[in-house]
Amino acid sequence: MYFIETEEELKGKRIAFTHMAQFAEAITIVTEDKGIFVVEQEDDEGFLKETTTYNELRARKYIFEHKYILSELNKLEIITKEEVHNYNKELRLERERMVLEEAARREKREKEEYERLNKKYG
After folding, report:
1. Distance CA 117, CA 67 (A)
2. Mean pLDDT, rounded, of the chain
3. Contact 53, 37 (CB under 8 A)
4. Is the Cβ–Cβ distance between 59 and 3 less than 8 Å?
5. Number of H helices, E strands in the chain
6. Helix axes 67-75, 56-65, angle to 10 degrees
7. Fewer CB atoms inside 10 Å of the end CB: C or N, the chain?
């Protein structure tokens, strides 16, 4: 699996899967060689305004958070169960890191506040 970030990279590729549901956040195009292209079209009062191609990070997040697309890509062997497991593990580790960082910041703020009050009131 790899991520396609420009329309030009799609040229000459054979399409293996698309997801263009009416109310989907983005359009997903997957090539037979396991390339994934995700694009969003912003609509401004009925007139097409802007097309945005997702970069790898944003496309990965979009794909892995949409169970239907993920399931279909798993069936086509574009994304393996191991890749899903690794992505979920990365998310869990990132959340744990963020929780630890927030706890450290809170501890520092509390210590500074304690020292300030202790200095003020003895």
Report:
1. 51
2. 90
3. yes
4. yes
5. 3, 5
6. 90
7. C
Which residues are paired to 50 by β-bridges? 42
The whole-angstrom separation of Cα 19 and Cα 36 is: 11
Cβ within 8 Å of residue 92, ≥6 positions away: none
Specify whether the CB–CB gap between 18 and 27 falls below 8 A.
yes
The residue with tokens 């744990």 is: 96
> The tokens 């501890």 sit on which residue?
107
Furthest CA-CA distance within the chain: 75
Distance CA 3, CA 27 (A): 14
Beta bridge partners of 39: 27, 53
Helix axes 67-75 and 81-121, enclosed angle (nearest 10): 140
SS3 state of residue 94? helix
